[in-house]
Design goal:
This protein has 13 helices and twelve strands. It is 41% helix and 17% strand. The protein has 321 residues and is of the alpha/beta class.
Amino acid sequence: MSFDASADAALTATTFVPNTHLMAGLLGSRDEHLRVVERAYPASKIRVQGNRISVEGPDAARVLRLFDELVLVLEAGQSLDATKIERTIDMVADDLRPSEVLKHEVVRGAKGKAIRPTTAGQKRYTDAIDTSIVTFGIGPAGTGKSYLAVAQAVQALHRRQVQRIVLTRPAVEAGENLGFLPGDLMAKVDPYLRPLYDALYDMVGPDGAQRLIANGTIEVAPLAFMRGRTLNDSFIILDEAQNTTPEQMKMFLTRIGQNSRAVVTGDVTQIDLNGKRSGLVNLESILGAIDGVSFIYLSAKDVVRHRIVADIVAAYEVHSS
């Protein structure tokens, strides 16, 4: 990358894409990717000549760094789309290295698809799970909290770092409403556990998941089933933890045995406890100083569902504040 200052003090930056064949993926069909970048930096003028890209304007250096990062992603064998470019723009704005985030692979899914973090917040989250005994992933819907936790659990199982995976959620309607449902207790709470099953099926396939559940390698159960147990050599995930009471949270955290890791996920804006206090709220003030415990907070920037979900989450955050 090179820079020149013109007479009117506007900064001009230039970079060269090393392989011409990468230009099509970088710019997109009919330059649609280029248009995304231009909309993000309206004060900058971008010129493309062959494999040479020059930018003039106050954000010239940042725009060129963005293109350099996108080239690294392409060289790693990944494709680009408008959503990925928008997330990369956000990361560059935060002075992060998108290529390091987007190239990190957690595990291969059942169909060979690489499961990766796609935002800086998700990368911090997966890194924390790798290095902590207990990780709290707190953030709005659609940020991949549960999905990435299950991916990390499957990776740990594949590497034989643990002997089993335990997936659990509180059944917040454990009284009358569940009683009216047909079937035994597991049939009643199964709808609450369905999101964990869905993530598991993506990682090891429906047949693989059922086989691992049948032989006890993976256990999926309501939180009430954890009482009185000690979970050794396990990767334990507590999902929807905002719907635990403080007593339930303490009970869960004290189940952790030798050579085990735990991930606790939740969204403190979606508490369904009917006036009871959530065990996830203000928990960092109690546990934050403990070595081996990490708190990762995700935001609307980390939403990986449809772009409108991020906008909805951001609108609610503005309204709440």
